């Protein structure tokens, strides 16, 4: 290939690069920005920021905590859904725990134990039972390691030893279950490995009073909404803390409840930030 042909090819490539840079790197972003400034779109394009007296207090699209400096829930506010990202948009990530994560590890509670702990905490805060299936009364995962000979599918045929693997019980306390298939249930010893056994979660008979969205984080960890059931659970506590009639608080919840998108997508939801701001506005009016 001659030098002249080589120069022509590189010149053409450079022109294409410059043209595409102008179109896709400058023109297209500017066009999208201009479209986003149209009435009805600008607020969403700017992050759906919620202002109070001209001061931004959050986004209606991103959840936030309503706690004191020590992380304790403020009783006068509705609490948000749990967040594995601490409500930080820069830290949104999966928790890397799934339903099969049943056994607690050092400094890493299993997903089941996290659910149990949250359920107990919510129950204590809102004056209802925090008990739920697969949870011990102490608020950890009700999981046994069943040790014994197994069949071809890996199921234990006849237990010879059964250990409650998540409970921090000692000589003065008993496991959540006394026996399993006629075998006495033991407490786990710290540092011992019981993965040799078949891991068996015990369902129990508890019917949860605490809704699922109160004890599980969303995929992003930034969900700004809670279910109407979780909002209703918190009404009496918020009303008492603010000295309001519970029925007045329920009316506010209803006013800030959005139905299914397009009438059939998703579930009804309550935006926590907007609801709490409405409560503050009500208090300011006296």
Automatic annotation (TrEMBL):
Its main location: membrane. It is found in: Cell membrane. It is a single-pass membrane protein. One of its GO terms (cellular component) is plasma membrane. The chain crosses the membrane at residues 12-36. Keywords: ATP-binding, Cell membrane, Ion transport, Membrane, Nucleotide-binding, Potassium, Potassium transport, Transmembrane, Transmembrane helix, Transport. Belongs to the KdpC family. PANTHER family: POTASSIUM-TRANSPORTING ATPASE C CHAIN (PTHR30042), POTASSIUM-TRANSPORTING ATPASE KDPC SUBUNIT (PTHR30042:SF2). This is Potassium-transporting ATPase KdpC subunit. It comes from Mycolicibacterium goodii.
